[in-house]
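Ops channel
N.P.: pipeline sanity check, posting one input/output pair.
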């Protein structure tokens, strides 16, 4: 995420695809849990990986919510073990990853953010008021955020 020097950002989403954006300056607000999620939380929860490696996990394991098929027999846990060098070359999962490297490589551009060709919005300074927030959330169809902002 290209932030001006010294700025911090909070992404509002429950979508785990966005974990790849986490850093010391970017955190995620999980609206359903009403909590901030940080890169340290990610590393603790996801196999001591760095958030930037989440792209590789998703490319290996696939993403059912985005209809991206993963490598057969490889889920997020196994992908994390592979990336940390904890899978034995003789294991079925390791051999499946070796055999289906084309799936892994084809998935990378599908799971990496931003998706190629996506326009990067210009961030501008603005005062956020409850009315402006409700209008924006309504215009963008974010019904769950409208319920939480009342």
């Amino acid at each position: 995420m290209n932030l001006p020097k010294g700025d911090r950002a909070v992404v509002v989403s429950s979508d785990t695809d966005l974990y790849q954006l986490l850093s010391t300056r970017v955190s995620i607000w999980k609206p359903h849990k009403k909590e901030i999620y940080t890169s340290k939380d990610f590393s603790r929860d996801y196999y001591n990986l760095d958030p930037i490696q989440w792209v590789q996990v998703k490319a290996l394991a696939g993403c059912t919510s985005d209809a991206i098929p993963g490598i057969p027999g490889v889920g997020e846990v196994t992908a994390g073990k592979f990336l940390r060098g904890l899978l034995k070359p003789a294991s079925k999962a390791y051999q499946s990853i070796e055999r289906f490297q084309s799936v892994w490589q084809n998935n990378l551009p599908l799971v990496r953010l931003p998706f190629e060709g996506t326009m990067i919005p210009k961030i501008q300074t603005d005062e956020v008021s409850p009315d402006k927030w409700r209008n924006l959330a309504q215009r963008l169809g974010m019904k769950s955020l409208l319920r939480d902002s009342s």
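N.P.: looks fine end to end. The chain has a mean pLDDT of 90.
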